[in-house]
Structures are given as structure tokens and as C-alpha cells.
Design goal:
The protein is mostly helical.
């Protein structure tokens, strides 16, 4: 009987409490949390107040609207509390303090009250420029484009440069589509404010317009402000128009004589000390313009007697796929200036196994300067395995600690068992000056024999264990014994070292770690750690991970964590995730996490959801759309990717080329000719390399970045 009564009591206790208003003490506690110096705590308290929708919170929130730590959260909560909350925000619109008025405007932007739009419009006449700008940004979110456009254009005559800048920023997405904006906006080309001109250049960075071109020539290039001149040179580089070459020569003639003489101390007074930076921009601009006169001018600069001119000119010239590049490389090898020779190691990889690379590596690895020898080892893997091992063996006996450490690091990158044997032999009697590098190299080698060395170190409460954790964070080494040791170690580690353990499981996923990672996700409060755990869970391939990610998305409201969770959920390829991601794609403002997650699935539905991204106003979304569209398996994908190969924006061409590789040689065969045509249009090695990689994957042939050889091969095979 007593047992039965106990069960009845427990049952009644487990029943949910009757619905009703929350105690006022709970409201007061939530309001008090808005003053805590923690964004996550404030956000959770604000969301809870909005969900409760209790009018009694209004008088409690009102005093916080003038508290700098809580103003934003309090105004946001008031905006969702109906008419009483909006009344408070409307009253704050006339506050004497600017920051209070700005946060009240932000709150009104969240409100759906019809009086809010009128109040925000009235703020366009505020005495403070920042408040006027805030109002303009809020109106973009709430008004139709046509109405917002008219209000924005009326602010072009505003005395404050920040307001004129805000007009350009709010209209940025519309500029490529609405050509009626050109006349009023390009009238700002001679604006006295540098910031306004900067924003105008960004808005028109990829479109030639004579009005802006002439204004740049007269107003910027002739300016004595070197900041203006740098911005103009950047604009010409983005434009890629051959008419800019004579103007860039004028810039060179005006500013380069101000360079300090070789060996002289660097100038300390403005603007002369910024001339080397201008020269870097100038050479990059000449390399970006497809014009023979510009290329010849750049080539002549590689022979200039001043090393501060030769170095950036050679760097920019070697970015081009140009017949004279080996000649320039050979000249750099013999350059008397150490800084110019040192630059060669950073661009030698662009020429593959060309003999000039081998010569460059040998010269750099035997240079008298230890820093040059160290940097030369960075690209030693481009040599043959035998020659690379010979160079590294010699470097291991180098008297300089930095050179020896670099040699140990590069040994792990040489795909030869003899390199790992050498590392393991060194671990038997390690040099303490390079011990940490040795541990990292052993982890990066991926050899299972390294586990026998690492396990004892993990059980030591010393600095060795910390070094192993750091080395393991991105190492491609997975072993059951190592996984078990790390999981057992997790509860003993502080926040920083737990991060390194989570990163190891992110890059070495295993279902053995799923349970521990799920517990850690519920326990951790640091958002960086939680994002890392989410990625590790998505890679594990465990159904329990998908369950946890679905539950996490339902419970969490942090935007950055949600984006990470959406991407991680998609990588699990769980069927339950597809409708969630499709629904989220239809919502306004879909972010990278949703796109990345949806891109892991196939089918017509996914194709239809991703296709609009390929002509999105923002370039980043267009790139993502083209890349992930190829994974859908839809037959309509191929024509879209082929059309993208003909676009002017290089990043979109490269995204389409990468996507074509997913289709395979048979399905992507019609794209071979457009790919070769795209390769021929590009001047820079890094751009051509992406297209050449796609051609190699689809044809099985390898002619590198040489478009002429690809064209000859295509002509021969077509016959």
C-alpha cells in the first residue's frame, strides 16, 4: 500500500505545472541578466523574455534602456512586447543621448507596429549623422526597394560623409541591376571625402565607366595623398582595362623617385615611407591587366637597379604564365640582394618540375644566410625524393636551430618511408631545441609507428603532453589506442587543451568518440569548442551524431552555432536533415552553413534550391552555388556550369571548373572545349592551375597550365 501511494505521489509530481503567468521574481531575474557582461547570457535572457511576452516586463526593462551594458537587449525585448513596449521605444527616440536613440531605432526595426516605420523615417532628419545612417539601414530592411531607393538618394546631399557612404552601402546590391543609380552615384567621383570615394570604387570595381575613369585620373592619381593613389591603383587592377597602363606609368614616374637609395635608412616621414607599399600595388595592377605594354613595362622593372623595385616586380611577373618567366627566375637566382633571392622560394612552386626550380632550391638550401636556407627547405618536396632526402639530411646537421627544425618539419612531407625512419631514429635521442617540431612531424607523417612514441608522453603531467596535443590537432593519424587515451584524458584537461583533442577527432573521425563528444557538447559553454565538436560529430558517420545535431538545432538559437550545426548536419547525409535544410533555404538570409549542408545531398529538389544561388547578387553565394550544384546529380547541372565558364569573374569560373570534376569524365565531356577556352583567357598561374586540374581530371592528360598544348591536343583528338 505504501508503495502504491509513493507511486501516485511521484506521478502527480511529474505532471506539468498548470499554465499561468510566471512569477514576477523570474521576470526580475531575467531582466537582471541583461546587465551581465556575457553576450550569450544576455541573448538567452532576451529570447526568454520575448517568448514569455509578459507586459509586466515593460516597466522593468524601461530603466535599462539607458544602461550602456543592457540598452540593445532591453530595446529588442521591448519591441516584442506589444504596444506598451513600442510606446517606450517611441519616447526614447527624443532622448538627448545619441546611443540611446540609436538603440531605440534598432528596437523599432524589430517591431511590427505600424508606427515604427514612421518613427524610423523621421530619424532621417536627426541631428546626429550616425543616427541618420542607422535609420537608413533599418529602412532598407523594412521598406520596398523603390521607396527605400528614393529616401536613400535624398541623403546624397547630406553634409556628413558618413551618410553619403551609407547611401552607397545600402544600395550596393542594387547597383549591378539598377543602371538608373549610375548618374546620381557617379556624381560623387570628385567627393572631398576619401571614404565616400573608397566606397564608390568598391561599388564599381568591376565595371568600366568613362566618368569614373576620368575622375580617377584627375582627382586621385594626381593627389599628393598616397592613400588616394593606392586606392586608385587597386581600382585599375580590378578593372583590368588596358587604358590604365599609361596612367600607372605616370604613378611610377611621380612616386618611385622618392624611394630611399639602396642601403639608406627607410624614410620616417609621411608619405615617403609608404612608397614601397604603393610599388607593390602598382606591380600587381600591371600583372592583372592583360596588355602587352603593361607586361613589357613590368618585365623592365625586374631589371631595375633598385632591389626594392626588382623584388615586387619579379614577384608579380612570375605570377603570369609568360615565356620570359624562366629568364626572370634565373636572374633572381643570381641577384646580389638577399631579399630578392629569398623571394624566389615563395613562387618557385608555380613552375612544377622545371629545371629552374631545381636550380633555385639547390641555391637557396646552400645559401650563406640561415634564413634563406630555412625558407629554401619549405619547397624541397618539389625535388625528386632522392634529392629531397639528400638536402634534408644535410640540413639536419646545420648549425642553425631554425634550419634543423624546418628540415624535421619537411621530412614528414616527403612521401618516402626512409623519411619516417629518420624521424623515428631521431626520437630515440631527441635534440631538445627541435623536440617539439619532431613530435609534430611524427604526427603529420601519419605513420602508425609514431603512436608507440606518443602514448607514453600523453600520460606524463608535463609540457610534453601539451606538445603532443597541439601536434595532434590536425594530424592525419588515427589509432584505437591513441583514441582511447585521448578520450580518457579529456576530463582532466582545461579548456585550451580540450580544444586540441576535439580538433584531433574532427580530422580523424571515429564512432568510438561519439559518446564522449555528445557529453562534451552538452557540457561545454564555450562557443568555439562547441563549433569544433559539431564538426567532429558530423565526420564520425554515427547515426547517434545525426540525432544529437537535430536536437541541438531545435534547442539552440545562437546564429553562428546554428550555421555550424546546419553544415555539420548536412555532412551526416541523414535523410531527416534534408527537409529541414530545404525549408531553411527558403527563409530569407540563408547562410553558408545551410548551403554547405544542403550541398551534400542529391536530387531535383536540392538542384532547384541551389540553382538561384548561381546568379545571387553576392559573388560568394554564386561560387558556393556553382560548386555544390554539381553534387546534386541532376542532368540540368552541366549546361549551368558550362555557361559559368564563360563569365568574367575568375572565381566563378574556378568554382565551375571544380564542380565539373564531380560530374566525371563521361558526363562532363562537353565541357572540355569551354575549359580550354577559359584556360587561354587567364594570365596568372594560380588561376590557370585550377582549370588545368579540372582538365587533367576529366581527360587523363596533363599539359599543365600551357593552353597552347591543350589546344593542340584537342585539335589532334578531334580529328
Amino acid at each position: 500500500m505504501r508503495t502504491l501511494l509513493l507511486l501516485v505521489v511521484l506521478f502527480l509530481y511529474a505532471l506539468p505545472a498548470p499554465a499561468g503567468p510566471v512569477p514576477k521574481a523570474e521576470l526580475q531575474a531575467l531582466v537582471q541578466q541583461l546587465t551581465v557582461r556575457d553576450d550569450w547570457v544576455q541573448q538567452q535572457a532576451t529570447n526568454r523574455l520575448i517568448a514569455l511576452n509578459d507586459p509586466r516586463a515593460v516597466p522593468l526593462l524601461t530603466p535599462l534602456c539607458r544602461n550602456p551594458r543592457a540598452t540593445q537587449s532591453a530595446c529588442k525585448a521591448l519591441a516584442h512586447l506589444g504596444k506598451p513596449g513600442v510606446e517606450v521605444l517611441l519616447a526614447l527616440r527624443t532622448d538627448t543621448q545619441k546611443w540611446v536613440r540609436m538603440q531605440a531605432l534598432g528596437g523599432l526595426g524589430w517591431s511590427k507596429d505600424p508606427r515604427a516605420i514612421a518613427a524610423v523615417k523621421s530619424a532621417l532628419q536627426d541631428t546626429d549623422a550616425e543616427v541618420r545612417c542607422r535609420a537608413l539601414f533599418l529602412l532598407k530592411r523594412t521598406l520596398p526597394y523603390a521607396e527605400h531607393r528614393e529616401l536613400a538618394l535624398t541623403m546624397l546631399s547630406d553634409d556628413a560623409p558618413t551618410c553619403r557612404t551609407a547611401v552607397i552601402v545600402t544600395l550596393l546590391d542594387a547597383i549591378p541591376k539598377d543602371r538608373t543609380l549610375d548618374e546620381p552615384l557617379l556624381a560623387l567621383a570628385n567627393d572631398p571625402s576619401a571614404r565616400v570615394c573608397h566606397m564608390l570604387l568598391d561599388a564599381y570595381s568591376c565595371r568600366f565607366d568613362p566618368r569614373l575613369f576620368d575622375a580617377m585620373r584627375t582627382h586621385w592619381l594626381l593627389s599628393e595623398d598616397i592613400g588616394y593613389v593606392k586606392r586608385a591603383v587597386n581600382w585599375y587592377a580590378g578593372l583590368g582595362d588596358a587604358r590604365a597602363v599609361p596612367l600607372l606609368r605616370q604613378v611610377y614616374d611621380r612616386w618611385i623617385p622618392r624611394l630611399p637609395a639602396p642601403g639608406a635608412p627607410e624614410a620616417t616621414e609621411d608619405p615617403d615611407k609608404y612608397v614601397p607599399g604603393l610599388l607593390d600595388r602598382l606591380t600587381q595592377a600591371l600583372a592583372a591587366i592583360d596588355d602587352a605594354a603593361g607586361t613589357d613595362f613590368l618585365y623592365s622593372l625586374t631589371k631595375d637597379p633598385h632591389p626594392l623595385i626588382r623584388k615586387p616586380a619579379a614577384w608579380a611577373f612570375l605570377e603570369l604564365v609568360e615565356p620570359r618567366a624562366p629568364e626572370v627566375m634565373a636572374a633572381v637566382l643570381r641577384d646580389p640582394d638577399e631579399g630578392v633571392r629569398d623571394m624566389l622560394t615563395q613562387c618557385a612552386y608555380r613552375f612544377g618540375d622545371h629545371h629552374a626550380v631545381q636550380e633555385a632550391l639547390r641555391a637557396m638550401c646552400t645559401d650563406a644566410d640561415p634564413k634563406t636556407r630555412e625558407r629554401g627547405l619549405q619547397y624541397v618536396h618539389f625535388a625528386t625524393p632522392d634529392e629531397a632526402l639528400h638536402m634534408l639530411k644535410r640540413a639536419l646537421a646545420d648549425p642553425d636551430d631554425g634550419v634543423r627544425a624546418k628540415a624535421i618539419e619537411r621530412l614528414a612531407c616527403v612521401k618516402d618511408p626512409r623519411a619516417v625512419d629518420r624521424l623515428l631514429a631521431m626520437a630515440a635521442s631527441p635534440d631538445q631545441s627541435t623536440y617539439r617540431t619532431l613530435l609534430s612531424a611524427l604526427c603529420n607523417s601519419g605513420d602508425a609507428r609514431a603512436v608507440d612514441l606518443l602514448l607514453p608522453l600523453l600520460h606524463k603531467p608535463s609540457v610534453e603532453r601539451q606538445w603532443v596535443l597541439i601536434a595532434l590537432q590536425m594530424a592525419r593519424i588515427s589509432d584505437r589506442r591513441l583514441d582511447e587515451a585521448l578520450l580518457a584524458l579529456l576530463p582532466q584537461l582545461d579548456c585550451e587543451w580540450r580544444y586540441y583533442c576535439y580538433r584531433h577527432f574532427e580530422f580523424n573521425p571515429t564512432t568510438r568518440a561519439t559518446g564522449a563528444l555528445l557529453q562534451a557538447l552538452a557540457r561545454e559553454t564555450d562557443n568555439d569548442l562547441r563549433r569544433t565538436i559539431l564538426e567532429a560529430l558530423s565526420n564520425a558517420g554515427d547515426p547517434a551524431a545525426a540525432d544529437a545535431l537535430l536536437a541541438f538545432i531545435q534547442k539552440n538559437e545562437d546564429p553562428s552555432l546554428l550555421q555550424q550545426a546546419y553544415g555539420a548536419l548536412g555532412r551526416t547525409r541523414d535523410p531527416r536533415a534534408l527537409p529541414i535544410l530545404l525549408a531553411r533555404m527558403k527563409a530569407p538570409g540563408a547562410k553558408w552553413g545551410v548551403i554547405r549542408g544542403l550541398g551534400q545531398y542529391q536530387g531535383a529538389q536540392v538542384y532547384d534550391a541551389l540553382l538561384p544561388l548561381t546568379y545571387h547578387p553576392k559573388m560568394r553565394y554564386r561560387e558556393h552555388g556553382l560548386y555544390y550544384l554539381s553534387n546534386t546529380g541532376d542532368p540540368r547541372t552541366l549546361p549551368v556550369l558550362i555557361a559559368a565558364l564563360k563569365r568574367e569573374e575568375i572565381s566563378e569560373v574556378l568554382a565551375a571548373a571544380a564542380g565539373l570534376q564531380f560530374l566525371g569524365p563521361e558526363r562532363a565531356a562537353p565541357a572540355i572545349d569551354p575549359l580550354i577556352a577559359a584556360l587561354a583567357r587567364m594570365r596568372r598561374f594560380d588561376q590557370r592551375h585550377g582549370v588545368a586540374t579540372a582538365l587533367k581530371a576529366l581527360t587523363g592528360e596533363d599539359f599543365g597550365v600551357d593552353a597552347v598544348k591543350w589546344q593542340a591536343w584537342r585539335a589532334a583528338t578531334s580529328e
